[in-house]
Each structure stands twice: as structure tokens, then as C-alpha cells.
Amino acid sequence: MIEEDTLAADRNMTIAETFFGTSHPLFNAFGVQVEEIGKGRAVMSLACRPVLCNRVEGVHRGVVVTLLDTNCGLAIFSRLGDMRPIATIDLRVDFIKEAPSGEGIFSEVECYAVQGDIAYVRGRAYACSDHSLLASVSGSFAVGTLGPAFDSAMKERS
Amino acid sequence: MSEPTVFEAPRMNKVQKEMLVNTPFVEFLGLEAVDSDKGIAYQLSFREEHIGNTLLRTFHGGILASFGEITAALYLVQSLDLDKEPSCNSMTFDYLRPAFAGSIRAEPRLIRAGRRFIVVSVDIYLEKKLVSIGRFIYTR
Q1: Which residues of A touch B66 (CB under 8 A)?
Q2: Residue B92's closest chain A neighbor by CA?
Q3: Size of interface A-B (CB pairs under 8 A)
Q4: N or C: chain B end with fewer CB closer than 10 Å?
Q5: Per-residue pLDDT tens over the stretch B94-124
Q6: Which domains does chain B have, with CATH numbers?
């Protein structure tokens, strides 16, 4: 059992590293960080950079959606245990509150089911400062879509 | 097809100008308002910072959704002559086809403008293909 857990943890580390290993231009520009990953759940965050802001210097709604969409992907990879290509089918985001000026945000998403070729996710985004709820997300993703797996290069090396 | 012309500043009202020019994230995205036979349309040309799947070179889903939402708000300000930026309560976004690196175009459409809530639908095209649709609910 312990061995299995260690294997799963290693796999999750590989997934997290692959996610950023290729220095993804969007994740770089947004400063996206992986905070936690495992068992179909992932936590991500980003700091409030000037280019990501709305007119009142808070993180823009569009950035919140982008972080949530990205986090959905990471949660699915963690549940699948690999990085088969996935694609968003649909996404629903409710905006509860604007992000406070100058504050970073974090998000938490769980992949609660995979049925056939569809993965289902739900999650939330919060302000880093007071953990107030900013937005909620739910959506579905197609698994095993067009193109190579994201971890294919890594698998070849090992 | 003729080249779309970028809107000249005088055609936009003050709120729209502020939304386009004084919002750092909107500037970062780099969207442009263009003339269209169907009225107002907006265009976004691919940049590396928009990328989602680096292997397929597609727009990130969050960038498509941002583009849709910003477009919907700009369109509302113009068509309903709002004096402040409306606030978005929720969005529902369907990804119909991969949006490969290129120039995408958003065509917003008003579904209903009620006293408190406004519903807008936005179709996003890559060339002539519909790649995604979004529905946005705003409060005045």
C-alpha cells in the first residue's frame, strides 16, 4: 500500500513537472504555480501581476477563468495518472466576487468522475489574502483527443 | 473578403475606450474592434502567450473565454449605450472545435436585455468555422 502511494506520488510529481517543464508561454506569462496535486485533485495559484489586472488593479475575470480551466486539466491528469491529450467540452463559471486589488488568487479543482471518454470537474477560486470565494467552475472534458500525449517525450526518455 | 478596418477612436464611447485601452489584461490579450457586415465584431490574433496545447498549437480555453466575455461586455456598452461597464455574473462556454493558432473573430448577439439582467451570446470563429460559443449573464 505504501509502495502504491509512493508510485502515485511520483507519477503526480512527473505530471506537475511536465506541465511546466516545457516552459509553457501562457503559464509563464501568467505566473501559474502548482501548489498541490494528487488523487484527482489539484491546487494552483498565481500572483497579481500588472498585465493580469482589470481597471481597479485586481486580477481580471478572464485570468480567473484561465486559471480554473488550467487547474481542471491538472486535476484530470492526476486522476488519470497520465497526460493523455484532453480538451475542454464545456465550462460554466459563476463569478461571485471581484478579486481584491493587488491580491493573488488560488484555485482548487477536483475531477470527481471519469466515464467513457469524458472527465467531469468542479472547483472554486479564492483570494489568497482572506480566502474569500471569487468564482466557481464546473465542466466536462474529452479524454484522449487529437494529438500526442503531453508526457510522451518524458516517457521516451525514461 | 475585404480586410477588416480597425475602429477609429471616435466611434467608441468613453466607457468602451476605457475598457479597451485602460485595462491591462485587455491590452495584454490584444483584441481589436473591427467593422463587420453583421455590425460590430472583434478580432484576436494569436500570440505565443495565448497558447493552450503547445503540441497542437491551439488557443487556451481560458483565452477564448476571456475574449468572449470582454467582447460581450464591449458590445453591451455600445449597443445599449451603458454608462458603466456591466458586471458578469456567469458564463457558459462550449468548445466545439480546436481553435488553432490564427486570427479568431467574435460575433456578439443580444439575447435579452431585461431591467436587471442582460443575456448575451457570442459566437467565435476561426476563418469561417465556428469554434466556440459562449453565453454570458450580466447585471446592469
Answers
A1: 60-63, 65-66
A2: A92
A3: 117
A4: N
A5: 999 999 999 999 999 999 999 999 999 999 9
A6: 9-139 (3.10.129.10)
Closest by CA position to A68, among listed A126, A29, A28, A16: A126
A2-149: which CATH architecture? Answer: Roll (3.10)
User: A154 — contact with chain B (CB < 8 Å)?
Assistant: no
SS3 B132: strand
Q: What is the interface pTM, i.e. ipTM, of the complex?
A: 0.90
Alpha helices in A22-145 (DSSP H): 25-30, 61-80
Length of chain A: 158
| Nearest Cα residue in chain B from A148 | B55
β pairing state of A86-95 and B129-139: unpaired
Chain A hits for B52, Cβ within 8 Å: 26
Q: Is A113 helix (H, G, I), strand (E, B) or coil?
A: strand
Residues of chain B with confidence (pLDDT) below 50 = 1-2, 8-10
Low-confidence stretches of chain A (pLDDT beneath 50): 157-158
3-state helix, strand, coil in chain B (%, to 5): 30, 40, 30
Which of A62, A60, A66 shows the shortest CA–CA distance to A44?
A66
pLDDT tens digits along A3-26: 777 788 778 877 777 776 668 999
Domain ranges of chain A: 2-149
Per-residue pLDDT at B16: 85
